[in-house]
């Protein structure tokens, strides 16, 4: 416990308290200021009357501070309730945000699948077009193969006819040669007779 000597309105008092000396001096200074203020405003008052009026003023200050404190406590409680409400709203918004993020991811996947589906559809259409072109090419190829087969057949026939003609020519050449020999023999016989 601390014991200090303080002056209030020029009179020394011994103060005892568990608080630090600095705090006790501050309290005594506040009371001294109040007493001097009352005596300056009314110099006819006795010290005891000034002390009572100072006590009344100090208690008035204390009550006002108490009301301010209670108002601040009520405001603090209101703020605490608001904070709790805001925290609940934040949690709710976080849940909504998470839900929206999941929904967004789901939509992104659907969009990706749709894009893939469109891509596949385009590829299918391109493939279908290529298949039609291939069918046309196969038809054309079959036509050319048929023509080629016909030409080969005609070519074979022509080769056969050519070969037959060669044999006929050779046969005719032989016959001509035989006729020439026979003719030469006949001429020789005629010249001999």
TrEMBL record:
Lineage, top-rank taxon, reads: Bacteria
Which keywords describe this protein according to UniProt? Cell cycle, Cell division, Coiled coil, Cytoplasm, Septation
Cellular localization per UniProt: Cytoplasm
Coiled-coil residues: 76-154
Tell whether Coiled coil is among the UniProt keywords. Answer: yes
- Tell me the subunit arrangement: Homodimer. Interacts with FtsZ.
The protein, known as:
Cell division protein ZapA
| Organism per entry | Clostridium carboxidivorans P7
């Amino acid at each position: 416990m601390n014991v200090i000597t303080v002056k209030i309105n020029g009179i020394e008092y011994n103060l005892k308290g568990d608080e630090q000396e600095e705090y006790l001096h501050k309290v005594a200074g506040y009371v001294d200021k109040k007493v001097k203020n009352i005596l300056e405003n009314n110099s006819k008052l006795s010290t005891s009357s000034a002390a009572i009026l100072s006590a009344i003023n100090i208690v008035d200050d204390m009550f006002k501070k108490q009301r301010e404190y209670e108002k601040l406590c009520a405001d603090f409680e209101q703020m605490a309730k608001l904070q709790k409400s805001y925290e609940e709203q934040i949690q709710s918004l976080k849940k909504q945000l998470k839900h929206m993020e999941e929904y967004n991811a789901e939509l992104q996947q659907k969009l990706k699948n749709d894009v893939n589906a469109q891509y596949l559809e385009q590829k299918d259409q391109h493939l279908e077009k290529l298949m039609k072109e291939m069918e046309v090419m196969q038809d054309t190829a079959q036509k050319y193969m048929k023509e080629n087969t016909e030409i080969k057949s005609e070519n074979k026939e022509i080769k056969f006819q050519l070969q037959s003609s060669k044999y006929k020519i050779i046969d005719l050449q032989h016959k001509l040669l035989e006729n020439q020999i026979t003719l030469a023999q006949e001429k020789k016989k005629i010249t001999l007779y």
